[in-house]
Design brief:
With 298 residues, the chain is mainly alpha-helical. 43% of the residues lie in helices and 8% in strands. The chain contains eleven helices and seven strands. A three-stranded antiparallel beta sheet has the order 3-4-5. The protein has a two-stranded antiparallel sheet with strand order 1-2. Strands 6-7 form a two-stranded antiparallel ribbon. Strand 3 and strand 4 form a beta hairpin. It is elongated and about 70 Å long. Mean pLDDT is 82; it is low at 1-19 and 167-185.
Length: 298
């Protein structure tokens, strides 16, 4: 029983670590947009980021990935592109955007153009608690714990510091910049198979990437099936989480192209290398893919 409890505790800890990592990547990717929107529309950047994190699952939800809708805004009074997803009811209509930035802009317009949210703009931009409870009272979401969830996210990731920043990203006096400075020159994060990854640049090292994202180097190597001492090449895909046991449902097989290796295929689809070999009934010692071979991904 003690061993079982230890295993469960370990899994919980790993899950929390992965979420923290994904959330931080999202924050660093969209904090500047949230700050810009704050200065343009007077909506706290902390609230915008917290809503984006909560509504989109830190950018990993199907609605965010396929329709760039980061705030769960539905089609009411909407003449633009549409997407249909199950929410409170089956097949509900949601707004779809060309880019995530468009979603952030429309979120601001949505709040400022509706009379139901007008009382919020009487609050200070630093009053994130007032905004959180005000959004719940105005009916932004049906969850009874919506305000508490927003506040918990803001306080856990110290998002309130962005409410005191200029549009350039520079902090006003007496505001800590340690976290912001840590991510200067940060790689752009992407998503594949619901995993966050970056593309290596010229001169990158695994140590530098590990330090940039706050991940132990040995874990980063393990996540990417790499050996100690590996030096990334420009264009390499580097995952920030452990890869999956199989590819996304949209990809069931892969036809091998010129020069492709099993490792390259595993990185392309975010599938563990050992699992890829096992799914296809081959081993590294006995098989090297040839052009035209069909590789099973699920």
């Amino acid at each position: 029983m003690k061993l079982k409890a230890l295993i469960i505790a370990s899994l919980v800890a790993l899950s929390a670590y992965a979420q923290n990592d994904t959330y931080q990547v999202y924050i660093e990717q969209y904090k500047d947009v949230a700050i810009e929107q704050m200065h343009k529309y007077h909506i706290p950047a902390s609230i915008t980021l917290a809503q984006g994190l909560l509504e989109s699952g830190a950018g990993t939800s199907e609605l965010a990935r396929k329709s760039n809708n980061h705030f769960g805004i539905k089609c009411h009074n909407w003449a633009g592109k549409r997407a249909y997803h199950d929410d409170d009811s089956d097949g509900e209509c949601f707004r779809a955007y060309r880019t995530a930035r468009e979603s952030y802009e429309d979120h601001s317009v949505f709040l400022t153009s509706s009379s139901r949210y007008e009382d919020l703009f009487k609050l200070k931009e630093t009053d994130y608690k007032g905004w959180a409870y005000g959004l719940k009272r105005a009916g932004y979401a049906t969850s009874p714990t919506y305000a508490k969830k927003l506040i918990e996210i803001i306080e856990r990731y110290d998002l309130a510091r962005y409410d005191k920043m200029q549009a350039s990203g520079a902090a006003t006096p007496h505001t800590s910049t340690s976290v912001t400075n840590r991510y200067i020159g940060m790689h752009t994060p992407y998503l594949s198979n619901d995993l966050v990854y970056i593309v290596a640049r010229q001169g990158d090292t695994m140590k530098a990437i590990a330090e940039e994202f706050g991940i132990p180097k040995y874990k980063l190597l393990r996540y990417n099936d790499l050996y100690k001492g590996y030096v990334p090449n420009k264009g390499d895909i580097i995952y920030l989480h452990r890869k999956r046991r199989k590819a996304d449902k949209a990809y069931r097989q892969h036809v091998v192209g010129d020069g492709e290796s099993m490792y390259m295929i595993s990185q392309k689809y975010g599938v563990r290398l050992k699992r890829l070999y096992r799914m296809n009934g081959v081993t590294p010692d006995t098989y090297a893919p040839m052009v035209g071979d069909v590789i099973r991904l699920r």
